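Exam revision sheet. Question 4 asks you to relate a sequence to its structure. Input first:
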Amino acid sequence: MNNIILQKLKEMEQTHQVTILYACESGSRAWGFASPNSDYDVRFVYVHAKDFYLSIDEQRDVIELPINELLDINGWELRKALRLFRKSNAPIYEWLQSPIIYRVHADFLTSMQSLFAEYFSSRAMMH
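Answer key, structure tokens:
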């Protein structure tokens, strides 16, 4: 399954012309309580090429593959991920602590994790 996931991620990069900075497993499979019929919940953070960021128009900030019985793959554009990180959004913090990492670009993960103490708010997370 790992090879299929890596291939899907590569296809998404090519199709959407993005670079995936980080991809991980989220949910039950990542945390060791998957059932026999659990799907793979792959989550990722990506960036576009420079021209995407120079546009004055709002553009889609999520990439999703249609969910099937085995794979649920979707990702957030880096700015969206950072805005949610700043607000202590639970999913992005879960992703960044996943024990199953499919891909990581350079120092992305350690850089993000080094910001936990500065931006994490248990109060915001509770809400």
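Marking note for examiners. The chain has one domain: 2-126.
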